[in-house]
Amino acid sequence: MAKKQKTRKQKILSNQRRQDNTTRYALPEQQSHVVLNAPVEKAKPELIKTISINEYQYLYKDLLKTAILTTSIVLAELLIKQLTLFG
Predict the structure, then answer these.
(1) Spatial contact of 23 and 15, defined as CB atoms under 8 Å apart
(2) Total domain count for the chain?
């Protein structure tokens, strides 16, 4: 079976639709302007600030609680393992 070819009228209509779609989504002239010689700002080196325990008292307390809880869980697991091996 032969492929059905478009008529001249169909071709004209499809070209008009294609042009309408491209103009609808085209960027406005103001936004399409590109600056090629824009000045480049150099990055400033950041200062490293040391954290004092006195400034973040809640952080120290939270880390201490976490360390105590983690240590107690590990010790409890070791104790349970020892009791099951020799029990």
Answers:
(1) no
(2) 1
